[in-house]
Request: fold
Amino acid sequence: MKKSIRDIDAAGKRVLVRVDFNVPLAGGEVADDTRIRAALPTINHLRQQGAKVILVSHLGRPQGVEESLRMDPVADRLAELIEAPVMKLTECVGDDVAKRLATLPDGGVALLENSRFHPEEKKNDPGFAAALARLADIFVNDAFGTAHRAHASTAGVAALLPAVAGFLVENELRQLSRLIDNPEHPFVMVLGGVKVSDKIGVIDRFMDFADAILIGGAMCFSFLKSQGVDIGSSIVEEEAVPIAAAALEKAKSSKCDLILPSDLIIANDFTYDAQNKAAPIGQIPEGWMGLDIGPRTATDYVEIIENARTVFWNGPMGAFEMKPFEMGTRAVAEAVASTQAITVSGGGDTIAALNKYNLAAKLDHVSTGGGAAMEFLEGKELPGIAALQDA
Reply:
C-alpha cells in the first residue's frame, strides 16, 4: 500500500493536490459536480490541518489555451461546496502564480488553471513538473481517474516532492484490491461495452480466479463471430475476433465460466424508432443488428448476479441511451444494486447507467476511474500510483 494524507503533518505546509475536476460544463457552469464532491474529504482534511491547499486539474482536451475550458466555473462551484473563497489562478506555473500563492493563508484553497493548456503536461516534461513542484512542499494525488497516465501533474511532480495518496485514491486502491486479494465466492464479473481489446487483459487475468464472466454489449459480437455465429450487421471489433477466440479456448480449461448471450434484442436500424424484436443467437436477419442482450439472457445474468458474493461490473449490456435497448443494462444494474454481494463498478458508461436509474448509491463502490480501474485490475502498474511513497 501507499502512504496517504493520514501519514503526514500538513500544518502550515503548501500542499499541491492533483484532483480530477474534469467535469461537464453547460452554459458556463458545472453541469455535474460529482467529481468535485469526490475530492472534498481530502480538501477539507487538509484545510482542517491548516495546510495551504493548491489544487491542479485538467479539463477537457484543449489544444493550447481555450477560453471555454478555463477552470473558473469549477472554482465557483468548489467555493459553494466548501463555503469558503477559492483563489483562482489564471496560470498554473510561473512567478506570478508563486507570488499570489504566497498570500494564501493557512487553510486557504487555490485552484490553478487547466494543466492541459500546457502541452508539456501530457508529455510529462521535467521542466513543467519542476515548475509545479516549486509551488509546494508536499504532493497529494487524489485523481485516480488519471493515475494510469504518466503526466507531469500525476507522475512527474510526485518524483520531486514527498508524495502521498488522498482519501479518494486510498479508497479506490482498497476497494479494487478486494477484487484481487481473496474475494468472496462466487465471484462474478459483468463486462460490456464495445471493445474486447479494452478488457481482454482483465478477462485473461480474472479467468484464473473469478467463477463467471458475463459478456454483454457490442463486445459479445467478437466472441460470437469467432465461433462462426452469424451476427448480421451488428457492430464488431474485427481485429479482436482472434483475441476473443483465444479467450474462449482458455475458458475451456479454466474453472471460470465465460458466458455469452443466448438471445438479443435486434433492430433493423440504429435509431430510436427502428423495428426491434428479440431473437435467439445466430438468427439475426440480413441487415439487422444486435443492440441489447435479450430477455432470456437478462434473466440468466440476473440469477447469476443474485447468487454471487462478489460482483464487478464494467460496461453496459446494450445501447441503454435509447429506451428500446435499455432492458439488459437496466436489469443488470438493478440486480447489482439489490444483491447482497460485495459490489464494485467502474467506467463512464456504467456510471451513467447507474445514475440514470438512481442506483449508484446502492453499490459498495463506484470507481471514479474507468481506464485506471481496468488497468489496475489487469495488473498493470499505474504511473500516478507507483510514484507515491510506500507505506
DSSP finds 14 helices and 17 strands in the chain. The chain has two domains: 5-167, 175-378. The radius of gyration is 23 Å.
